[in-house]
Amino acid sequence: MKIKVLKFGGTSVGSVEAIKRSANIICDWSKKSKVIVVLSAMSGETDRLINLTKSFSKSPNPVDFDNAISTGENLSCALMSIYLNNQKTKSKFLHSWQIPIMTSSEHMKSRILSINKNFLLNELENLDVLIVPGFQGINERREITTLGRGGSDTSAVAVAAAMDAECIIYTDVEGVFTTDPNIVPNAKKINKISYEEMLELASQGAKVLQTRSVELAMRKNTKLSVRSSLKPKKIGTIITDEESVLEKNTVSGIAYTKDEAKITLSRVLDKPGVSSKIFGPLSKGNINVDMILQNISQDGKFANLSFTLPRADLEKALKIIKKEKSKIGYKKIISSNNISKISVVGVGMRSHAGVAQTLFDTLGKNKINIQVITTSEIKISILIDEEHTDLAVKKLHQAFKLHK
Amino acid sequence: MKIKVLKFGGTSVGSVEAIKRSANIICDWSKKSKVIVVLSAMSGETDRLINLTKSFSKSPNPVDFDNAISTGENLSCALMSIYLNNQKTKSKFLHSWQIPIMTSSEHMKSRILSINKNFLLNELENLDVLIVPGFQGINERREITTLGRGGSDTSAVAVAAAMDAECIIYTDVEGVFTTDPNIVPNAKKINKISYEEMLELASQGAKVLQTRSVELAMRKNTKLSVRSSLKPKKIGTIITDEESVLEKNTVSGIAYTKDEAKITLSRVLDKPGVSSKIFGPLSKGNINVDMILQNISQDGKFANLSFTLPRADLEKALKIIKKEKSKIGYKKIISSNNISKISVVGVGMRSHAGVAQTLFDTLGKNKINIQVITTSEIKISILIDEEHTDLAVKKLHQAFKLHK
After folding, report:
1. Which of A320, B97, B105, B191 could make a disulfide contact with B139, Cβ separation 3.0–4.6 Å?
2. How close is the nearest chain A Cα to the Cα of B160, in Å?
């Protein structure tokens, strides 16, 4: 049985017109193969639901919270099925508990464990299209769980992986770009990109795909692509294994994220075990620390220790660090939240030297100070003042000739 | 285990404030017994959802339709549970598929077949409050079904019956009144009324309770009452068996409905089998005919046949009757939709004669023409011109001294 998995994001089901437009894309595919559709909630709906829950509790019970916000996808799925059936495309909406889509037990950031492939195959026997809600599943206690922001991408890839099918993500942009076209108008659409590069771009702020969905596609070797639901005829971006990407650019894209914060602890005793006293409690508090930088003081006894974290977690992290002050032992705590991170990504970096040099030269010429640097095999990330973000992205895009 | 079943209608969960107000009532009860709460969707939500489905299809696929409109109760239940847990009242929302609430197989007008009592008892062991969505269940194909308009009342009574518990319906009025207070400002709240009377009032247009819920309570002898969620301290109306109603009024209440239509077929052959040729096809078309009146013509061969039906079904009924014209054999078809039905209800009618006389006298004095009359043991219904509805209700309320 030939199966395609199509995922439509919030803006692609955000209105009656958008749902009908996306339905036409589904009808077209259904003439060539069986189709499983994964849908997000109508754009804005999940935010509306989250705000509603906040009217009743600042920190809602996670079981209740997932029950409330998962209603969004169920509605868009039911509406899509109504329209497809009305258009004589035989369709059925399957709830996550009907299939089931099993997830890990925790709420609000659950992970998909398994999808009942045989049940879906069986249902597809007599139907053209199955519609499955993204973003949710049920756990072993038969409670509804949600996968966290952007989780519908992961749902789609998980369904595709389970069915050994190709996954097409329909969204409101034409594909993955060399950088944000809002900042660099001549940014170019990338035709093919490796999983590894896409993973770095996604985790460094390119918002087209959720990081976990790319990770999963890479692990399962699922054929994945991104297209625009507004221009469905245009080939978007194909995300595939490195070997299939013929033209290996040194740099493929530039991502940035503005929601970073930095904490610096001055005069921390430079002794083994100190890091764990800082990062242990933060990790327990569910705070993901990103970059860590340590400058040894001249006398060799003390160090200044800086680390970055999501801006949303800054207050919570400061509270934890202050509470642990006597155990850690530091002089001052300095925090800033007007910083941003820029990442230059490309598999070609592996074989081409000089990427770091070009980066430093470009920023130096433009008097942009680099606060922290981290590198991986296919990525260089830097931390700069937030006010320089746009300038840095523009100049780097130009320096790496990504517009060509 | 002492259990109370509380049902809150759309207006009682229609806003953040309303949900919090109703939650306080639940918290109070939960100090005295275990509580199962049955909720409607937030007021206006079900209409919004129905309208949304109509944007995609004039006659949506019933499975899809039920999936779409059942999202409303799920949201109000989840929000209520968030607030109760926030208020330290241990609460859990149980989906109809989790319990399960099993219904008959058809959609949009399903009937509850069974509710898993032991599952609910088990869940109540460790909780103060269980929250259950009204209006819905699942069928043997594990599809979500809905019970039809006002079905949440029936859900509540069904849960109460299954748990051998008392059922309190919280709504936006103080109880059942002798007639509509919008027409008769000095209408009185009824303290106690028998199931039979309530059933007649509900089916004849008193909108406080859904007919099926009263029917079910009567069959299961479930203790049922209606209260205002705005004035929860006030005792509302208790609906109970006839023996428990001490003061047996000749007339308990007057109901009316304006959504009636009448069809008259002139010169129908007065022969056996003619009725089934008319009412058979109507019944197949799912049209409930209410009153039927037949006047034999002078020659004894032909009759004029009139019947009433819901106004919403008039067009459909006319189409059916016209299609069957050759089979039925009639001369003319006349329809009117500006008529209303008024019903005078009371168990005391059984023993007191003279109710009909008072009714005819009152309407006669006020020059209101009666088109059709039907009677049952505890009810007299009449059909009049719609424009006289308010006047007739007022004058009858006075004549039967219901304000005293």
Report:
1. B105
2. 24
**Helix A45-54 × helix B71-86 angle, to 10°:** 30
Instruction: List, for residues A175-218, the tens digit of each pLDDT value.
Output: 999 999 999 999 999 999 999 999 999 988 788 899 999 999 99
Contacts across the A-B interface (CB distance below 8 Å): 111
What pLDDT, in 10s, does the model give residues B98-136? 999 999 999 999 999 999 999 999 999 999 999 999 999
- Report the alpha-carbon distance of residue B84 to residue B96 in Å, rounded: 20
Buried residues in A340-376 as b, exposed as e (16+ CB within 10 A): bbbbbbbbebeeeeebeebbeebbeeeebeebbebee
**CA A214/CA A222 separation, integer angstroms:** 9
A85: nearest CA partner in chain B: B61
Contact at 8 Å (CB) between A117 and A164? no
pLDDT tier at B319 (50, 70, 90 boundaries)?
very high
Residue range A307-347, pLDDT digits in tens: 999 998 999 999 999 999 988 889 999 999 899 999 999 98
The minimal CB distance from B82 to the residues A64, A86, A91 is found for A64
Q: Which of A70, A41, A46 is nearest to B95 (CA)?
A: A70
Instruction: Write the residue in B60, B61, B75 that is nearest to A71 by C-beta.
Output: B75
Amino acid at B10: G
- Nearest neighbour of A56 by CB, restricted to B56, B79, B142: B79
Q: B60 to each of A232, A336, B95, B136, B323, how far by Cα in Å?
A: 27, 55, 24, 18, 25
Distance (Å, whole) CA A276 – CA A273: 5
Contact A255, A343 (CB under 8 A): yes
Whole-number pLDDT of residue B201 = 92
Q: What is the structure's pLDDT at A248? A: 67
Adjacency order of strands within the sheet including B129-133? B91-93, B129-133, B34-39, B3-8, B166-171, B224-228, B237-240, B192-194
What is the residue type of A368? I
Instruction: Indicate yes or no: CB of B97 within 8 angstroms of CB of A97.
Output: yes
Torsion angle of the four alpha carbons A141, A143, A148, A149, in this order, in degrees rounded to the nearest 10: 160
Give the span between the Cα atoms of A197 and A321, in whole angstroms.
Answer: 34
Cite the beta strand spans of B198-318 per DSSP E.
Answer: 224-228, 237-240, 253-269, 292-296, 302-310
Give the residue carrying structure tokens 């509509």. Answer: B180
Q: Do residue A56 and residue B86 have CB atoms under 8 angstroms apart?
A: yes
Contact list, B52 vs chain A (CB under 8 Å): 16, 75, 79
DSSP calls for A64-122: HHHHHHTHHHHHHHHHHHHHHHHTT--EEE--TTTTTEEE-S-SSS--EEEE-HHHHHH
The span from the CA of A122 to the CA of A338, in Å, is 53
Least confident of B2-16, B140-154, B292-306, B327-341: B292-306
Report whether pLDDT(B237) > 80. Answer: yes
Q: In this structure, which amino acid lies at residue A85?
A: N
Distance CA B311, CA B65 (A): 23
Give me B113's structure tokens: 């077949």
Query: Does the CA dihedral B33-B38-B40-B41 come out positive or negative?
Result: positive
* d(CA B86, nearest CA chain A) in Å: 6
In eight-state DSSP terms, residue A42 is P
Chain B residues whose beta carbon lies within 8 Å of the beta carbon of residue A81: 61, 63-64, 67
Output the furthest CA–CA distance in chain B (Å, rounded).
78
If you measure CA to CA, which chain A residue comes closest to B77?
A68
Looking at every residue in chain A, the average pLDDT score rounds to: 93
CA distance A362 to A399: 7
Q: What is the structure's pLDDT at B356? A: 87
ipTM of this predicted structure: 0.85
Domains of chain B listed by start with CATH number: 3-172 (3.40.1160.10)
